[in-house]
Amino acid sequence: MLQLYNSLNSKLQPVSSGKDGKIRIYVCGITVYDLCHIGHARSMVVFDAYVSYLRSLGREVEYVCNITDIDDKIIKRAELQNISCDQLTTTMIDKMHADLQALGLARPDVEPRATQYIPQMQSMIEDLIAKQYAYIADNGDVCFAVRNFKDYGKLSHRKLDDLISGARVEVELGKRDPADFVLWKLAKAGEPAWDSPWGAGRPGWHIECS
């Protein structure tokens, strides 16, 4: 019987399916501002092997891997190349698929692009604000209030106060707590933007997988 390590309870446990007998797998995909690198290939190969093995056992699997096709890196790279963000991401997605084919890997069953799910993300953000898990920051961004969510960190088994704020990215202005992160980013002049209850902008990286 196939078992996986469950980060939530720190135990190995059998892989289970839904009530319909289908196993559903979601993988955080690639931010397509450049060509794929070896780290991306590792993720592609690992999950392709996992899905292929389950299917070889006769299990029905739905494999979903998202594509982040809007974020700061994409905007900056498109500006440098003097092309639109859509032109850049479309080209990089085509090259990503070519890489998958070159590695002999199957494409995921579903590849949702972040820009195709803006209304759903906005609805989720509205719900988080209503439950006081999110707030509108002084600079107009909408941020997730990590200290209002008592289970934050339970998957990694790390305490919030032990995390080093700003270790990976520059801390955004206007946040109530350095550990908070952006759910909706107010657009600057000339940037791609979608209308929202909080002003024209785009989703933050953290909400796109959701």
Summarize it.
The protein is built from five helices and eight strands, in the order βββαβαααββββα. The chain has helices at residues 38-56, 72-81, 85-102, 118-130, 205-208, and strands at 3-6, 11-14, 22-31, 60-68, 134-136, 142-144, 181-186, 201-203. It has a four-stranded antiparallel β-sheet.
Give structural notes.
By secondary structure, the protein is an alpha+beta fold. It has helices spanning 38-56, 72-81, 85-102, 118-130, 205-208, and strands at residues 3-6, 11-14, 22-31, 60-68, 134-136, 142-144, 181-186, 201-203. The protein has a four-stranded antiparallel β-sheet with strand order 5-6-7-8. It has a two-stranded antiparallel sheet with strand order 1-2. The mean pLDDT is 92.
Instruction: Give helix and strand order, one letter per element, not per position.
Output: EEEHEHHHEEEEH
Radius of gyration: 19 Å
Helix content class: 25-40%
Distance between the termini: 30 Å
What class, by secondary structure content?
A: alpha+beta
Low-confidence stretches: none
What's the main sheet like? 4 strands, antiparallel
Largest sheet strand order: 5-6-7-8
Q: What's the quaternary structure here?
A: single chain
